[in-house]
Amino acid sequence: MIIVLKEQPEAQQLQNLEEWLIGLGLEIHHSEGVHSTVLGLVGDTSRVDTDLIEALDIVASVKRIQEPYKNANRKFHPMNSVINVGDTSIGGDVFAKIAGPCSVESEEQIISIAKEVKAAGATMLRGGAFKPRTSPYAFQGMGGDGIELLLKAKKETGLPIVTEVMDLSQLELFADVDVIQVGARNMQNFQLLKELGHSNKPILLKRGLAATISELLMSAEYIMAGGNENVILCERGIRTFETATRNTLDISAVPVLKELSHLPVVIDPSHSAGIARYVHTLTMSAVAAGVDGIMIEVHNDPAKALCDGPQSIKPDAFAKISKDIDTLLETVRGF
Amino acid sequence: MIIVLKEQPEAQQLQNLEEWLIGLGLEIHHSEGVHSTVLGLVGDTSRVDTDLIEALDIVASVKRIQEPYKNANRKFHPMNSVINVGDTSIGGDVFAKIAGPCSVESEEQIISIAKEVKAAGATMLRGGAFKPRTSPYAFQGMGGDGIELLLKAKKETGLPIVTEVMDLSQLELFADVDVIQVGARNMQNFQLLKELGHSNKPILLKRGLAATISELLMSAEYIMAGGNENVILCERGIRTFETATRNTLDISAVPVLKELSHLPVVIDPSHSAGIARYVHTLTMSAVAAGVDGIMIEVHNDPAKALCDGPQSIKPDAFAKISKDIDTLLETVRGF
Amino acid sequence: MIIVLKEQPEAQQLQNLEEWLIGLGLEIHHSEGVHSTVLGLVGDTSRVDTDLIEALDIVASVKRIQEPYKNANRKFHPMNSVINVGDTSIGGDVFAKIAGPCSVESEEQIISIAKEVKAAGATMLRGGAFKPRTSPYAFQGMGGDGIELLLKAKKETGLPIVTEVMDLSQLELFADVDVIQVGARNMQNFQLLKELGHSNKPILLKRGLAATISELLMSAEYIMAGGNENVILCERGIRTFETATRNTLDISAVPVLKELSHLPVVIDPSHSAGIARYVHTLTMSAVAAGVDGIMIEVHNDPAKALCDGPQSIKPDAFAKISKDIDTLLETVRGF
Amino acid sequence: MIIVLKEQPEAQQLQNLEEWLIGLGLEIHHSEGVHSTVLGLVGDTSRVDTDLIEALDIVASVKRIQEPYKNANRKFHPMNSVINVGDTSIGGDVFAKIAGPCSVESEEQIISIAKEVKAAGATMLRGGAFKPRTSPYAFQGMGGDGIELLLKAKKETGLPIVTEVMDLSQLELFADVDVIQVGARNMQNFQLLKELGHSNKPILLKRGLAATISELLMSAEYIMAGGNENVILCERGIRTFETATRNTLDISAVPVLKELSHLPVVIDPSHSAGIARYVHTLTMSAVAAGVDGIMIEVHNDPAKALCDGPQSIKPDAFAKISKDIDTLLETVRGF
Question: What is the tally of structural domains in chain C?
Answer without folding.
Answer: 2
